[in-house]
Specification:
With 84 residues, the protein is mostly helical. Helix content is 43%, strand content 10%. The protein has a three-stranded mixed β-sheet with strand order 1-2-3.
Amino acid sequence: GWCFWPYKKIDATSSPVSINKPAEWDTIVAYTEKPRTIFDEIRKSRPDKEKVQRALESYLENLKFKNCRINPGYLKALGLKTGT
């Protein structure tokens, strides 16, 4: 048998299934990459709460299998077939 972890990735072709990236997702990623050595830096770089909320809600919606994209080339490389 096969086991995939993770089998879903955001905007990737290196997984069986791809999740559409939410519009504000880059805001969250940018925040995680900013300096975090002192609390003041964390607080100043914190993104707008509403943007983050929208991004996370959109992520949860996009995460549903019906809203994802199957990567047929990835599956073909493994010798698997997509459902019809």
